[in-house]
Amino acid sequence: MRAAVLHETGQDKLDVLDDVEAVGFGPGRVRIRVRASGLCHSDVSAMNGVLPQPAPFVPGHEGAGEVVDVGDGVTNVRQGDRVLVCWLPACGTCAACRRGQTELCLAGFMNAGTPNFKRPGGDVFGFAGTGTFTEEVVVDAACAVPIPDDVPFDIAALIGCGVTTGLGAALNTADVAAGSSVAVIGCGGVGIAVLQGARLKGAAHIVAVDPVESRRDAALRFGASEAVAPDALTDAVQRATAGEGFDYVFEVVGTSATTRAAYEATRRGGTLCVVGAGAVDDHVRFNMFELFFDEKRILPSLYGGGDVLRSYERAVALWRAGRVDLAGMITHRVRLAEINEALEQMRTGAALRTCVEI
Q: Which of 37, 238, 284, 309 has its CA 20 to 30 A from that of 161?
């Protein structure tokens, strides 16, 4: 079976091999034939060590495909079903799940420490307990979520992470108010989804901030009122809010520098929503007086900050109704053998989302 493998953390290229075997099939498990996988920036962050992940591993966590086989006790899917891969499944029984905060369930994270694959040389992990840059993957049954027949695999793959994360940040976590002002810092796939969510909520003015011109142009097509480079953010604050700051600022990069810039661009009493996944040793600094005096709400948003299954259903409904453009977010397509081209498109900012067709 073919799969793209990162041998050691810190390497910048993947090795597409044909001697990889999906392992772990049995009771409560599902084997999936992957048909499409999105390339999310979190995959790159795991490769370079920003996000913790045992190596060697198969990246990819934004996937969709067909169920090949189901183990004993699996009732939510059956052979032949079309599914998307949920990298953060809820167990339904832990304290977070019982409180209704299923996005905080740790069951999915625990899967990351169990090998999903093997090669003649030993075990191979799957990123975030999945690993979708492969022809087949074995996952817990809760990771296989059925999708309607009218949802293409590439669209379903995006809903599996980037779209759910971005839309949810605006709709669930921040709950953007109609008529408000919004800035989105970082306009890759997740940032564009945030932007579309803010537009759905009725934001009156949306400023997209990104260093890559093609992404700024794309943000305008998806509904941004204006798009600026990071060094023009201060001017945008003056122009759009008379210097007061935005009602909502979304940080979708995952660094202390952009988070600090987002905080400063937020008005007193406004909301900073942190969406980007950053490194454990990258610390952002606030002084105690400004935290008290400015009364800005700082809201982290993990996987869209809400019930994941409901968020999937909502994304499908909005897509069907033409309220969100998901197909337009896919700017590049590659085959698995061309995965390193997709990585370069991600790193340079040339792509919003690249679909890996498998």
A: 284
In this structure, what DSSP letter does residue 101 have? -
Task: Please spell the DSSP secondary structure of 233-269, one letter per residue.
Answer: HHHHHHHHHTTS-EEEEEE-S--HHHHHHHHHHEEEE
Mean pLDDT of the chain: 96
b/e burial code for range 258-290 (CB count within 10 A of at least 16 → b): bbebbbbbbbeebbbbbbbbbeeeeebeeeeee
Q: Specify whether the CB–CB gap between 39 and 14 falls below 8 A.
A: no
- Give the bridge partners for 3, in sequence order: 17, 134
DSSP bridge partners of 357: 36, 335
- Rounded Cα distance between 201 and 188, Å, is 20
Residue type, 20: V
| Encoded tokens for 291 | 């935290």
Task: Quickly list DSSP for 292-340.
Answer: HHH--EEEE-STTSS-HHHHHHHHHHHHHTTSS-SGGGEEEEEEGGGHH
Mean pLDDT (whole number) for 105-133? 90
